[in-house]
TrEMBL record:
<keyword id="KW-0238">DNA-binding</keyword>
<protein>
    <submittedName>
        <fullName>TetR/AcrR family transcriptional regulator</fullName>
    </submittedName>
</protein>
<dbReference type="InterPro" id="IPR050109">
    <property type="entry name" value="HTH-type_TetR-like_transc_reg"/>
</dbReference>
<dbReference type="GO" id="GO:0000976">
    <property type="term" value="F:transcription cis-regulatory region binding"/>
</dbReference>
<dbReference type="InterPro" id="IPR009057">
    <property type="entry name" value="Homeodomain-like_sf"/>
</dbReference>
<feature type="DNA-binding region" description="H-T-H motif">
    <location>
        <begin position="29"/>
        <end position="48"/>
    </location>
</feature>
<keyword id="KW-0804">Transcription</keyword>
<keyword id="KW-0805">Transcription regulation</keyword>
<dbReference type="InterPro" id="IPR001647">
    <property type="entry name" value="HTH_TetR"/>
</dbReference>
<dbReference type="Pfam" id="PF00440">
    <property type="entry name" value="TetR_N"/>
</dbReference>
<dbReference type="GO" id="GO:0003700">
    <property type="term" value="F:DNA-binding transcription factor activity"/>
</dbReference>
<feature type="domain" description="HTH tetR-type">
    <location>
        <begin position="6"/>
        <end position="66"/>
    </location>
</feature>
């Protein structure tokens, strides 16, 4: 049965995501995606072009997943009070599924994402909380704090264990990102003057 174009694109991205989660970046190829959904290489290429084009589309798909998850998390924060631990879990959940490795590889190859601002709701809630807490600061300062957290989360899935080992963390402990993520939540809360927010998580 012939799929509609949009249905085909969804099926291809879903298959590519499953391959990424199951086998990492190397497992994602035009041929493997086609085999998984019963489509020829030419059929996959018709919708996404080369493997590089498919990977870029997959990364954007991951970005949409993070954006949607962040929006849901923000909507659940009572009275606009940010739960920073919840934010970290929300973003890390997607990056841990191979999207961090994908993002690092594409950026290393020279690709740049023109999209901006999907963490803007987080910036606004954190900045409003700072204001209420009597910690006035430029909005740009809050943006840089959120950007630093996002950068740390994006790199942790790929490099975090090695970086922790470099600081003397044991091999077994270095593989567990939980304590590091708690440290980020506490550090961000302290930097923004929102220690009570971290305690909520």
């Amino acid at each position: 049965m012939r799929r509609a174009p949009e249905e085909s694109r969804r099926a291809i991205l879903q298959a590519a995501e499953e391959l990424l989660i199951d086998g990492g970046l190397e497992a994602v190829s035009v041929r493997a995606v086609g085999k998984r959904i019963g489509m020829t290489d030419a059929g996959v290429a018709h919708h996404f072009g080369s493997r590089q084009d498919l990977l870029v589309a997959l990364l954007r798909h991951g970005g949409r997943r993070i954006r949607d998850a962040v929006e849901q998390a923000v909507a659940s924060w009572a009275d606009g009070q940010a739960d920073i631990n919840d934010l970290i879990r929300t973003i890390a959940r997607v990056y841990d599924q191979g999207y961090a490795e994908l993002a690092v590889a594409l950026h290393a190859a020279g690709w740049e994402d023109p999209g901006v601002g999907f963490l803007e709701p987080v910036v606004q809630i954190l900045h409003a909380a700072r204001t209420r807490a009597g910690r006035p600061a430029p909005l740009s300062d809050t943006r840089l704090a959120v950007a630093a957290l996002h950068q740390a989360l994006a790199l942790d899935a790929t490099y975090g264990a090695a970086f922790r080992r470099s600081a003397g963390v044991s091999e077994a402990a270095a593989k567990r990102p939980g304590p590091q993520r708690t440290w980020w939540a506490n550090t961000l809360s302290t930097a923004l003057g929102l220690q009570d927010e971290a305690a909520r998580g």
